[in-house]
DNA sequence: TCGGATAGGCGCCCA
DNA sequence: TGGGCGCTTATCCGA
């Protein structure tokens, strides 16, 4: 275990990516408190000192510590302890390693960042450029701007009446309606006008949300999500096409 | 690469955890579309056929596919392709591997699940059991129940007046106030009464949220988060204590 | 399966 | 640094 401790310390000092498959238990204390009993998991220490503990299933780590975590190793009997501490928020995690199945570490070179298309902002942009998606009379004024009324996706008017458009790239629920309502009310208050229209633009909407929308005299406009996989033409659907 | 392909196929067939450190690029198409240029990353295939691609930094995978993803390997020239497909939602990811830095796979045994304390539900329970945290006259009636008024955290009354308590384990923002507002209004409508009190119980609240709360004549009650790390007594803070 | 809500959410951007 | 909010959010839970 002492030898293991040395190797791990050097790897982390050299900012290598560390992969530790092991039988371990985990205790976390910070924003909550949790314990995880003994089992085989992957402990991953990244060069930026993010620490992840992954179970054999699921997308998310069962336990983790954020970037910049302070890590120290202790040998306690025949166990190796990964002692992790972080401030802001103050939290700590202890990984107790009983048996090592596999240990690898490598220095990685990665200069590329993800380029993604199809966000809600892209959807707002499309509506701004194609206002008829909302209505024939809709005239957009500002888009995704930090107006003093808040983060309104698309702001415009229909026949001189202020119109707030809230976009959702997925099916809209109650919280989307609430959000729209907040923007409309803020605009009414700040402009001192009663008549402000509210439009929820999304591919679909839940029943309850529809009802709430109608209660408040807002309206729903069905808009295709900004990006989706075409099952037949998946090969052609490349980022470059957009 | 053919040899590599065989090894990977066998590992996945045998439901092993696969760790592939490699130089790769990734294309994703589904709920959005994205590309990631060449770089060194960890490709992780879990026994449940979740696929993760991790960059050298950050808590989250830069690309991923959900549990149960269909995976096939293709050799294309001197590159290995990981072809991943999933339905519901329909999406696909292609990892193009140019160079392998390290490949390991192991069968894992993990029967333990995380036990965690300190959720919002725990907070609601504490308020239900200690109603004086809200006020001296507060009498709780139901907790975290699917009342016909919705998912109200704690419902009770103060001097005969219905009182809705919405809990947040972290600093409350605008959306928390809106949520409270929705519950209060639903209760007013269903009971046909005007006077329903709204209480937001959280460790703290943002300025805007406070203002909105006061606009609607609701009130804020400062309640400690359900669980937190005591810096001085971190050793004593064990799950068993709660 | 859908709908609603939480999460130790994370990560981004902007004041 | 805090506030507001989107996310390929994921994940849980109830109807």
What is the arithmetic mean of pLDDT of chain A?
A: 93
Greatest contact between two chains: A-B, 73 and 75 residues
The percent of residues in helical segments of chain A reads 10-25%
What is the number of helices of chain A? 4
Model regions low in confidence, pLDDT < 50 over at least 5 residues of chain A:
231-237
| Main sheet specs of chain A | 7 strands, antiparallel
Task: Kindly state the number of beta strands of chain A.
Answer: 13
- What's the multimeric state? homodimer
Cα shape of chain A: elongated
**Strand fraction of chain A:** 35-45%
Strand order of the largest sheet of chain A: 4-3-2-1-7-6-5
Following the backbone from N to C, one meets helices and strands of chain A in this order, namely: HEEEEEEEEHEEEHEHE
Termini separation of chain A comes to: 54 Å
* Spatial extent as radius of gyration of chain A: 26 Å
- Give the helix/strand class of chain A: alpha+beta
